Amino acid sequence: MIGLVLCGGNSTRMGTDKGMLPIGNTTWAQHAGSQLAALGLPVVYSVNESQVPAYTEQGIKPLITDDVELQMGGPLKGILSVHRQYPTEDIFLLACDLKDMHADVLQQVQAAFNGTTTIYENAGFDEPLCGIYTAEALAQLAGATLPKYSMRFVLGLIPVQRLMVPGNWRGYFFNYNE
């Protein structure tokens, strides 16, 4: 299993690269990476080509750029780009803009993982940007012709184990997009 910090994207709503925003004496991307590394995972960072210089300058590595052959956008493009580089590895995904994520949340999903894609459900909605995606499920998605590329849509196409977010953990899933 590898840890994946999802940093790619155009940041159109935010207006700036979220992964490069400061949090303490580090960046959002490095913060997420350190949380995954604390679980004993090797960590990679998904970025688009335009982000490579800034991440390289910060010493963030290894970087996996979006695969131009993938005719899609959004988080799925980053995840499948990494899957193409590591086709046999399950991927523990954490988006860099979930900057309030807590170690207990990550440890629980890691402990509950049973070989099935494992994510959280928060007040009736999937939380697709923090969870473990199996290599098998990603291979299925990579080989499919998909009418939509939203994470919530593709989660309906693969077997998924959903963990309920306790009420006191809901704030950990706040996605900073604007």
UniProtKB/TrEMBL annotation:
Record GO terms (molecular function): nucleotidyltransferase activity
A Pfam family per the record: NTP_transf_3
Keyword Cytoplasm: yes
Keyword Cytoplasm: yes
Spans through the membrane: none
InterPro entries assigned to the protein according to its UniProt record, in alphabetical order: MobA-like_NTP_Trfase (IPR025877), Molybde_CF_guanTrfase (IPR013482), Nucleotide-diphossugar_trans (IPR029044)
Keywords from the UniProt entry: Cytoplasm, GTP-binding, Magnesium, Metal-binding, Molybdenum cofactor biosynthesis, Nucleotide-binding, Nucleotidyltransferase, Transferase
Residues annotated as domain MobA-like NTP transferase: 3-152
PANTHER family for the chain: MOLYBDENUM COFACTOR GUANYLYLTRANSFERASE (PTHR19136)
Name of the molecule in the record: Molybdenum cofactor guanylyltransferase
Species this protein is from: Chitinophaga horti
